[in-house]
Design goal:
The structure holds 2 protein chains of 2 kinds. By secondary structure, chain A is α/β, with parallel strands linked by helices. Chain A is built from 12 helices and 10 strands. Chain B is mainly alpha-helical. Helices cover 74% and strands 0% of the residues of chain B. Chain B contains 14 helices and no strands. Chain B is globular, with a radius of gyration of 20 Å. The chains are: A alpha/beta, B mainly alpha. Chains A and B meet through helix 9 of A and helix 3 and helix 7 of B.
């Protein structure tokens, strides 16, 4: 019926119709996911790498049958089929794999409506704050039949986070610029964590204060004038890479030297941490926080 | 008033306004600084925050903005006259798409081939623009009768869409944060953070302006038609070749410095023509000066109105320039 109608409608109404249809499917599917909780999924497709890590951490790894093209962790996922990613999920292959649960990111609205049409339940994930990592663990534990393990994993993470909190308690909290993106070798296109989000929370736990606290966003582009004015005591850069040579590390630290009046530069407290786990809101977040705390409070 | 006097008067007026803007712009920003402190040499450099804000954050930005604005406006004037097409821009002939592709490749494949403190992104974008210029030029001059402006236009437009498709393809292969960075590059950014990229781009721009300086009379004739120009003794093909190569080279250098800041290359020439008439002996220098002042002002707004957040400068140029131009268009017609 809908197709018949579409033929006679104009472009504009078609678009509107499609939008409301998608919205309707989206809204109805959210209810649907909640309703089918009784069944335990045995074939999970995860399109969100950090959620894949969470699934393995709560003992649901053996139920995962396919992952996104960016999934690398844990190593077990490397031999699983890859079915696209955030922008380009391969819907056909996903459906062919006959999953009984698909982990989607909240912006994948098209995919979600297609899954609903195919009666495939999905888990709607989006990045949040630090506590959201543990909440996602528990939520997925319930959803996949691993409540106890998920609870245990979440508690273990919380314990490690609390340990860091306790260790830095009472120590002076340096005002820190937490950079996660920058044109290497220069001071262009600097992106830093701002007033909320998991990176902001990680920094707080590790005993620092985000200099961009005032900006109510997860990240912000920091201009040079901004950085000079804010005068951070520490500049902490997270570089998502496996390793950085000593020479490259020196170049990166030296790129900041032209901002001589910034206390972090003056007191040689510009630090670059290298590791792919540093910016991933998953089970390795405790390691990342521990490394940040060590850098801030040696 | 004789034409010579008119040129001197009008161009000096534009020069004064532009000079005032360029001198004033570094004194304002999201933080208030004391000029007395900025130039107080008794304070050690490392302790003089005001001086650093002035010399490290603002001055390079203002210089980059004036250089990029001047170049894009001048290249727009030259190309519109040469192609006799009011819709021509410095980006029409594929230069910016080539530059964008180069920049994308540098961002996405994380090339770390910085030279002399200039990172891989501007270097690759300049290389990309050279490739685009080379292709368009080769296509347009492959015909026996020298450079064909029609072929030049068509080749440029086609190359633009071809490169745009390549850009989308490369972005598609990239991960999310890289695509975001690439998209951000396309909106223009003048927070260059040091003088090195300016010094790197300047020689190409200066060379192009040396060519521009001898062009105005020829452009006046060319805009009346190739035959008219030829009859008046213009070596049409040679003039077009020089105009195309210099304008494109300067555009490539400007884009590598500040990203493909839109709008200036098309609107500033028209705006200036509405203000001062169509004699290129006035339009070219006045447009150059106006382009510089306009981009400096747009960047000033970009860095202040939502501080501490920055607005990409390309958004401001279109938001301010569009309505202003339409208003002028209605008022003058």
């Amino acid at each position: 019926m809908a197709t018949g109608k579409k033929i006679v409608t104009t472009e504009n109404t078609k678009v509107t119709e499609a939008f409301f249809l998608a919205l309707f499917f989206f809204v109805s599917s959210v209810g649907y996911v909640v309703n089918v909780d009784a069944q335990q999924p045995k074939r999970i497709v995860s399109l969100v790498p950090n959620v894949t890590e969470i699934l393995y951490a709560i003992g649901a790894g053996s139920q995962v049958v396919a992952v996104s093209s960016y999934d690398e962790e844990p190593p077990a996922v490397r031999r699983l089929p890859k079915v696209g990613a955030l922008m380009d999920p391969d819907t056909e292959r996903i459906i062919t794999l006959r999953p009984d649960l698909v982990i989607t990111y909240s912006s994948q609205v098209d995919l979600q409506s297609q899954l609903t049409r195919a009666s495939i339940p999905f888990f709607d994930y989006r990045h949040g704050d630090l506590a959201h990592i543990m909440a996602t663990m528990r939520g997925l534990g319930e959803r996949t039949g691993h409540s106890a393990e998920a609870e245990q994993a979440a508690r273990a993470l919380e314990a490690r986070i609390d340990e860091v909190r306790a260790r830095v308690k009472g120590k002076p909290r340096p005002r820190t610029l937490l950079v996660f993106e920058r044109d290497s070798g220069t001071l262009r296109n600097i992106y830093a964590s701002a007033g909320r989000g998991f990176l902001h929370d990680m920094l707080e736990v590790a005993g620092g204060v985000d200099v961009l606290d005032e900006i109510d966003k997860e990240s912000a582009q920091a201009s040079i004038e901004n950085i000079l004015t804010l005068a951070p005591e520490v500049i902490l850069e997270l570089r998502s890479a496996d390793r950085l040579s000593d020479a490259a590390m020196q170049t990166e630290v030296a790129s900041w030297s032209s901002l001589a009046s910034v206390p972090a530069v003056k007191n040689h407290r510009v630090m670059v941490l290298v590791g792919k786990e540093l910016t991933v809101p998953g089970p390795r977040v405790a390691e990342a926080i521990e490394r940040m705390a060590k850098a801030l409070h040696p | 008033m004789s034409i010579r006097r008119r040129i001197v008067t009008v161009v000096s007026a534009f020069a004064v306004v532009t000079a005032v803007v360029i001198v004033w712009a570094p004194t304002v920003g999201s933080t208030s600084i004391s000029l007395a402190r900025v130039f107080d040499t008794s304070i050690p450099w490392a302790d003089n925050v005001d001086a650093q804000i002035f010399f490290v954050a603002r001055l390079p930005r203002v210089l980059a903005a004036s250089l990029v604005g001047a170049t894009l406006a001048a290249a727009g004037v030259v190309l519109q006259a040469m192609l006799r097409n009011p819709l021509a821009t410095p980006f029409t002939l594929g230069v910016s798409a080539g530059a964008a592709l180069g920049a994308m490749l540098a961002v996405i494949f994380q090339l770390e081939v910085g030279v002399l403190g200039i990172s891989s992104v501007p270097i690759m974008s300049f290389a990309g623009s050279l490739v685009a210029i080379g292709i368009v030029y080769a296509l347009a001059s492959s015909q026996k009768r020298g450079l064909s402006t029609n072929v030049l236009l068509l080749a440029g437009v086609t190359l633009n869409s071809f490169f745009s498709a390549l850009i989308l393809f490369v972005q598609y292969l990239a991960d999310f944060t890289q695509s975001l960075r690439a998209v951000r590059w396309l909106m223009g950014d003048l927070d260059v953070g040091s003088y090195r990229p300016i010094v790197g781009a300047a020689p190409f721009i200066i060379a192009a302006f040396a060519v521009f300086a001898i062009l105005p009379r020829t452009l006046n004739l060319l805009s009346m038609g190739d035959d008219v120009a030829a009859a008046r003794g213009v070596e049409v093909v040679r003039a077009q070749r020089w105009a195309f190569l210099s304008a494109s080279l300067a555009t490539g250098a400007a884009v590598s410095l500040g990203g493909p800041v839109g709008f200036i290359g098309i609107i500033v020439p028209h705006l200036v023509r509405l203000l001062v008439g169509s004699d290129h002996r006035i339009v070219l220098p006045a447009g150059t000066l106006f382009g510089a002042a306009f981009l400096v002002m747009c960047d000033l707004l970009a860095r202040t109105i939502m501080a501490p957040l920055e607005i990409p400068v390309g958004i401001i140029t279109a938001l301010i320039g569009g309505p202003f131009f339409l208003w002028l268009l209605v008022k003058k017609s």
